[in-house]
Design a protein that fits this description.
This protein is an alpha/beta fold. It folds into two domains: 4-275, NADP-dependent oxidoreductase domain (TIM Barrel, Alpha-Beta Barrel), CATH 3.20.20.100; 301-365. It contains 15 helices and eight strands. It has an eight-stranded parallel beta barrel, surrounded by six helices. Strand 3 (70-76), helix 3 and strand 4 (102-110) form a beta-alpha-beta unit. Helix 12 (301-313) packs antiparallel against helix 13. The chain is globular, with a radius of gyration of 23 Å. Bound molecules: iron/sulfur cluster (2 copies). One iron/sulfur cluster binds next to helix 14 and helix 15.
């Protein structure tokens, strides 16, 4: 299978109405995708308020041979459905999609809490029954939690065949997302990985200027998004990387480097490691708050650093970060109040030059 999948969660819409999908645009996009030999489509019961599945039926199922594509959809557990609720939602998905079997059917967005519900409500058993009946070909789950939880689920549910993970070069070593660790757990259990959020909700397609320059200097003709998708697709245990395409030019861009896919080289990986540092750790504060109690000026240092990091991470968040900064200052001393006593510096396990960094934050956020 070619390693690019079409995510159907950010489809073009008319007048910004998420339920009013521009089907003519989608037809153009999916036709091009299929014409290049790609087959994997990913939707969910909840995407576009249910209209993503309908759009897929109208644009793909009704217009292309069944054997030319595969479809994934997902059973949501957020409404805490009972067995009848699961059956109703599965039936609705089948009807909306207009298919008589689903290639891949996932439990949607498992974490440690929803996993307990999935077990107690019999959701895994429901998937097993659907598979035995031939209504779905493969079963698995999408996942948002840490590697330890993933290990527990895969140990306790060893017949789940695939895992869909949030994985991108920015979250690869992130302590919260744990992309790498989760990928390694899935690999250890022999489960192929489907990647979601390879460009982190689009933010890696438009990174801060410094990162954009790093990538463009290395590959002037390649989009920033291409680096992110290639990073994920280069991992050997990744079966497919989903891209939530909204415009025809995004399909064209993705095909331009995925048609003749070349894994990222060691040199390129090193560039992405540097890029991740720029995007993520403008100030490597871990928000431990060891610095705040002793500050005579009551400066909320970690919150200010967090706002600054948000701005550095995503240029589109600049105004959001500035608003956040203004809000913080309503209850915190200002960086301009800092008297340079360095109590915070002595307390900081990350050895940050806090007064100097605060001054930079004030300059950029103020
Ligand atoms: S150096 Fe500034 S921020 Fe640090 S404790 Fe002193 S007054 Fe607070
Ligand atoms: S002590 Fe250092 S790492 Fe901890 S919150 Fe303060 S600045 Fe951040």
């Amino acid at each position: 299978m070619k390693k690019l999948g079409f995510g159907l969660m950010r489809l073009p819409c008319i007048n910004g109405d998420g339920k009013n999908i521009d089907l003519e645009k989608v037809k153009e996009m999916v036709d091009l995708f299929l014409a290049h030999g790609y087959t994997y489509f990913d939707t969910a019961y909840v995407y576009h308020g249910g209209f993503s599945e309908v759009a897929f039926r109208e644009c793909v199922v009704k217009r292309h041979p069944r054997e030319s594509f595969t479809v994934t959809t997902k059973l949501p557990l957020f409404p805490n459905p009972d067995r009848a609720g699961m059956e109703r939602m599965f039936g609705e998905s089948m009807e909306r999609l207009g298919v008589d079997y689903i290639d891949y059917y996932w439990l949607h967005a498992l974490n440690r809490g929803s996993y307990q519900f999935a077990v107690s409500s019999g959701a895994f058993d429901y998937l097993r029954e659907l598979k035995a009946q031939g209504k779905i070909k493969h079963m698995g789950f999408s996942f948002h939690d840490n590697a330890e939880t993933l290990d527990k689920i895969l140990t306790e549910q060893p017949d789940m065949e695939f895992v869909q993970l949030q994985l991108n070069y920015l979250d690869w070593e992130d302590k919260g997302v744990q992309s790498r660790l989760c990928y390694e757990v899935a690999t250890k259990h022999g489960k192929p990985v489907i990647v979601m959020e390879p460009i982190k909700g689009g933010s890696l397609a438009n990174p801060v200027k410094k990162v954009e320059k790093m990538l463009k200097d290395a590959e002037p003709d390649m989009s920033c998004a291409s680096w992110a998708i290639r990073f994920a697709a280069s991992l050997p245990n990744v079966m497919v990387v989903l891209s939530g395409m909204s415009e025809l030019w995004q399909v064209e861009d993705n095909l331009s480097y995925m048609d003749d896919f070349k894994p990222v080289t060691d040199e390129e990986k090193a560039i992405l490691e540097e890029a991740a540092k720029e995007l993520k750790f403008a100030i490597p504060c871990t928000a431990c708050r060891y610095c705040t109690d002793g500050c005579p000026m009551n400066i909320n240092i970690p919150e200010i650093f967090a706002a600054y990091n948000r701005m550095k991470q995503d240029i589109h968040k600049k105004w959001e970060a500035r608003e956040k900064y203004a809000e913080i200052l309503k209850t915190s001393g200002s960086p301009e109040d800092c008297i340079g006593c360095e109590q915070c510096v002595n307390a900081c396990p990350q050895h940050l030059e806090i007064p100097k960094l605060l001054s930079e934050c004030a300059g950029d956020l103020g």
